[in-house]
């Protein structure tokens, strides 16, 4: 889109009935590194690409736990995402304090959406520049939602956001019909595959991605690097890559494990 | 330093087979540190003159406190120490009109209640609610007394690499029992356990508050709270309500950052101190002297006060806890029914239950 005279304020409509500042905020989401989410009836998986600003820097955290039964993946302005995750955590704690039960995911995303909407209707604010994939489990099963900076939210069977997410979406569109009955392991494999699609040629290693899962009997948690690497190796064997690729996969994956465990044991303090 | 105590020989045994209990121990300084010399129950062989004081735990006079000689309570000789000459009445007998704990007034109401019950169930339930609301005369007449003491006792003992936290499970109000099965212990973190006695409403709110704050802490710091950190948090939480306090008397137990046992004891408004052992609640005045006798470090004059974790082993500490509760149950009407013992050590949190006297 191009600059025009209606895009200075979020409180200015364009003649076509658009709020350009909000749409620019959605553009910011597309600039962030990719995040994918998919769900079955009983489990929901979130995945994110660990893109570091430079080789010297550590990657930013994209997966946050909001409660035992809910987690989010963010894409866009990480700072906005952190603030919103803190809001989500507070809402979950408040709800379980008052009602002694976990906050249903659908209510959580509504509260999040309402918070985002406020910023689209105040002249002294700006919209949040982050899209959130909210994955959670409640009494009605596993859910995956996408929250926009606009204050909209949509429920999805599978979705991807961020840069080069279209490739992942194409892959998911081909497969999503069967996801309801997928097992936990197949969901994780498909999430990894979707992440691989966004890398477009770059080799997928456990160091490059983060995957989290929530499901029946399983609180929201980030899956450790070693397990992810095992999934990746299993994937590569099953897709029957050529022998050179399989050989090349063995030493880099071992290195990736050692490097990965050192780098991602704790999030850097300023990430929170 | 010598603990003042009567010479053991001054207390005559009532019968050849049943030396009385308790007989105070000889001076602590004459014994190696850590030896448990008080034999509340220890030196009484079967049959114990106090059959309800855990008759399954009777040891030989030799010092082997760990061994359990399981012996059924046979008919004991009468002794001035036991309130009845027989085992405690069964639990099903609830309307015990001859119970000495019943106030004269209530006895009459209950007998009249028994008569009117068949005729007017509504009236009897009104009487019952009246009974349960009887407090001390000055406060009962106010319509705005916001607290209620639900009784109960809590104990915590810190060891070298473990911590024992125990509380009874009786909930009472006035002279009534509300339930025999209410836990006063809250497991706040994987190395922190809180036991509180007092007003159950405030206790529950306090525990919820702390649990929510702990969740927030975990989100922010990506780890569980340590016991000293939780200790400070509890103190601040209590003082926050300095002018409308939580009617909760707390004992916090757990492992500190080095893995040593630590116990913090509190008053109702947050004054706290790290100690080696503590007790709070209705039976605390009965239990604390016993713990002092057994666990107090021989040099309390040493300043600054060093942490006095007991050198007792975990099983010995648990046995001590069971003993003190059995004794407190005898004399404190608000303590009894069941004892919940929680042990925290490096391998996690373990729970154990023990039946206590139900009267």
From TrEMBL, chain A:
| Keyword annotations | Cytoplasm, Nucleus, Proteasome
Biased composition, class Low complexity, residue ranges? 248-272
Q: Which PROSITE patterns match?
A: PROTEASOME_ALPHA_1, PROTEASOME_ALPHA_2
Annotated spans, Disordered: 238-272
User: Main location per UniProt?
Assistant: cytoplasm
- Organism domain of life: Eukaryota
Q: Which SUPFAM superfamilies match?
A: N-terminal nucleophile aminohydrolases (Ntn hydrolases) (SSF56235)
* InterPro entries, per database record: Ntn_hydrolases_N, Proteasome_alpha, Proteasome_alpha-type, Proteasome_alpha1, Proteasome_asu_N, Proteasome_sua/b
- Subcellular location field: Cytoplasm; Nucleus
User: Where is the Proteasome alpha-type subunits domain positioned along the sequence?
Assistant: 6-28
Q: Name one GO biological process term.
A: ubiquitin-dependent protein catabolic process
* UniProt-listed Pfam families: Proteasome, Proteasome_A_N
Reply yes or no: does the keyword Cell inner membrane apply: no
Q: What does this protein do?
A: The proteasome is a multicatalytic proteinase complex which is characterized by its ability to cleave peptides with Arg, Phe, Tyr, Leu, and Glu adjacent to the leaving group at neutral or slightly basic pH. The proteasome has an ATP-dependent proteolytic activity.
Quaternary arrangement and interactors, per the entry?
A: The 20S proteasome core is composed of 28 subunits that are arranged in four stacked rings, resulting in a barrel-shaped structure. The two end rings are each formed by seven alpha subunits, and the two central rings are each formed by seven beta subunits.
| Protein's UniProt name | Proteasome subunit alpha type
Which organism's genome codes for this protein? Answer: Rhynchospora pubera
Starting at the broadest rank, the lineage of the source organism is: Eukaryota, Viridiplantae, Streptophyta, Embryophyta, Tracheophyta
UniProtKB/TrEMBL annotation, chain B:
Instruction: Tell me a GO biological process for this protein.
Output: proteolysis involved in protein catabolic process
UniProt function note: Non-catalytic component of the proteasome, a multicatalytic proteinase complex which is characterized by its ability to cleave peptides with Arg, Phe, Tyr, Leu, and Glu adjacent to the leaving group at neutral or slightly basic pH. The proteasome has an ATP-dependent proteolytic activity.
Cellular component terms (Gene Ontology): cytoplasm; nucleus; proteasome core complex
Q: How does it assemble?
A: The 26S proteasome consists of a 20S proteasome core and two 19S regulatory subunits. The 20S proteasome core is composed of 28 subunits that are arranged in four stacked rings, resulting in a barrel-shaped structure. The two end rings are each formed by seven alpha subunits, and the two central rings are each formed by seven beta subunits. The catalytic chamber with the active sites is on the inside of the barrel.
Q: Where in the cell is it found?
A: Nucleus
Tell me which UniProt keywords the record has, alphabetically: Cytoplasm, Nucleus, Proteasome
Q: Please identify the protein, giving its name as recorded.
A: Proteasome subunit beta type-1
Location of the region described as Disordered in the Swiss-Prot/TrEMBL record: 1-89
The principal location of this protein is nucleus
Q: Does the keyword Flavoprotein apply?
A: no
One Pfam family named in its UniProt record: Proteasome
- Where composition is biased (Low complexity), the residues are 13-45, 53-63
